[in-house]
Specification:
By secondary structure, the chain is an alpha/beta fold. A 7-stranded mixed β-sheet has the order 1-8-7-6-5-4-3, sandwiched between helices. A 4-stranded parallel β-sheet has the order 21-20-16-22. Strand 5 (about 90-95), helix 5 and strand 6 (about 135-140) form a beta-alpha-beta unit. Helix 7 (about 160-170) packs antiparallel against helix 8, helix 12 packs across helix 13 and helix 25 (about 695-715) packs antiparallel against helix 26 (about 720-740).
Length: about 850
Amino acid sequence: MNLEIKTLFQSLNKAYIALGLFIDYAEWFKTNYITFFDTIKPEDSEETIKDAINKLLTNVFYNENFLIKENFNDIDLAIYNGKVVNERIGVIIETKSLQNSNEMISQSEINKKSFHQLLQYYLEERIIHKNSQIKHLIITNSIDWFIFDSSEFEKMFYQDKNFHKNYVDWYGGKLISKHKDWFYNEIAKPFIENSQEKIVCTYFQLSKNFIDTEKNLIELYKILSPEHLLKLPFQNDSNYLNLEFYNELLHLMGLYETDDNIAKIERLPQKRRNKGSLLENIIAVLEKNEEMLSHITDLQEFGDTNEEQLFSISLELCITWVNRILFLKLLESQIVRFNDDEKDFAFLHSQKIGDFEDLRELFFDVLAIEPEERTEMLQIKYKAIPYLNSSLFEQSLLEKECVKINQLNSHLEIPIFSATVLKNSNGKRQTGNLPTLEYIFEFLNSYNFASDHKSAIQKENKTLINSAVLGLIFEKINGYKEGSFFTPGQISMYICRETIRKAVLQKFNSKYSLHCENIEQLYNQLIKIDIFEANKTFNSIKICDPAVGSGHFLVSTLNELIAMKSELGILCDAKGKMFRNTYCEVQNDELFISHFGEIFVYKYKDKECQRIQETIFNEKQILIENCLFGVDINPKSVHICRLRLWIELLKNAFYTQKSNFKALETLPNIDINIKCGNSLVSRYALNGKNGKFSNGVLQKIKKITEEYKIQVSLYKNVLDRAAKREINKNISKLKSDFESFINPTDKDYLELKKKRAERNQVFIAFSLEEKLEIEKKVAQLEIDIENLEAICQHKRVTLYLRAFEWRFAFPEVLDDEGSFEGFDAVVGNPP
């Protein structure tokens, strides 16, 4: 058995290493680290070494919440999973003196007593004491550190049936001797010597000046921290909701989460409502202007009572505006970081946006318009803000029909949340009231929204809010009616990884008549295939989520697809040029790019960085446009899913060379692949009458498919808004044409067609009595048609594995002959 050595960087979770380290923590670690090296000497005994290590770890990491001590079972040091002795051991540490080289393992020799001892302690805990909570195992002499993940010991030793049995028999006294040395020499040593396996291990060698570089200091701090050694959740862990951020955001919106079994988001009770909250501000505008409700096309969709309608309409507007503001915060963070943290590039603050009219101006007169078409005043005021071509900054139907953001009262204040993140000059929680917009901006500025994963020592201890964390918050707020359930990142990551890998293997095996059973075999075969051809095949994969929700599974799928391209060695730039020492991988349900052993950070002045950033952006765009599709019955879910995909693109936004690195690349119109509809119903027959289409119908399908694909292609890249609206009209007409000849099966739709035909008949009355009867009949038909249209609109886009109604929902997946092969994979929670 040999060691497979990993560096500190390779061993750390990339999401964790991306977190900045607060300068106070860094300085405290430095102080204790220097003391540690001043304490230890080459001639020190094992006990002295052990005490020095204990003091370092306790002072810096494990003093408040975790117990670290010598264990009664001869374990040198044990870090427990809690503060009391009856907690399970989480980390086992075996120490040796610097002079005891005979027993200390090395990079080239693992079969030493220190490893045998560590193995015996592990097996006693795991088998005899039934401890399944061991996270890591460590061997150190204070200078050389070997850290093993417990999963390696589980796989190599615990799950080996013969070795497992030998240990149990030895421990139970069934063998020649029960002495530990006998176990070391007669069981452990021969097994390790004869094994051909490699055991993965983190190795580093310390010296007094090891932490002189910021990179080493941060990585060493994190490798020894409880977040790593005890595998605890950390700030930007996508498996956990950031309650601090979530609760204060709800407070600003005027909402709270119920405490019942199904957590729902509701309007605050009467006594706790704040006029300055976004929700109450909107409701006040609606109550003052009652005629606004009459402008809404389908008021019944928002509830049966006036109170329900006021709440639902106001909440939808509130979510729309908060989504935009959060998106802009991510954009602002990107722009500031791209420009060497120059604060002049920040724009979400009260000095620039003083009221809701300024915010409306930012949404629609700046973000929705190309810089050269903005007014001269706005060009000066917002010179750093690019045009992104996102429908996120087009007025929603509800904004057009109802309340506009500049109609809100900008002078109202809101009490500061009792558990606020805002701090005063003394470092205490801020109290009192603040104007709503000022509060929102100060609240957001208290967090770090960076998305380029730059690990650094930070002067302010700001919590990182990444897109995955925001995704959980979007999902919670979006499911306000029924109570929400968000899928933890570990689960979505696993499901997507397993599903996509099978789909990729099947696609390449089918296309090239291969017989690959895993990704490793496919990697070896792809060397023979042209890289452009391989990418074309990969990009033809079609994946759908029939209950897309907030888009979590599609985002996980996108990340997995990029990582797979990197793993298969086919990730390249537009010219087919591959990358050296640059790797993409998914960790913590996020995509991370490593460049020469460090987290990749975009710097547009660096040619290679520019090439990498452009490639990842373009690859994401290609995959989103060609491979990812989604449906949800909830319109708000569809909007949030689109938003999350735009955010994924925004994370890799880049300054274009044609603009002399002054303008960001515009975002494509990816919204067309995410559609609103009911995926549980079928409205059309799959293959026409009797399972077969006539030649005439097939020709119509082929013609419409060809035209539809042209229009979709134009839509995805059009920048002009008037042209975009025209293309949308063409697409709607093509869908209508498709409806006119395809074989309907839905009874409500058939009834609607019947009622429409009956209404369009010419009625002739010969008497007043007949005229009144006809008018009564037509009036009833109008009511029936209106009700059926509402039902059919609810069912409009249909997509379900059981129904296989892909043609109407996604003509994009039809081939040029109008035939349908379906999606290669379906991801997400079942609808």
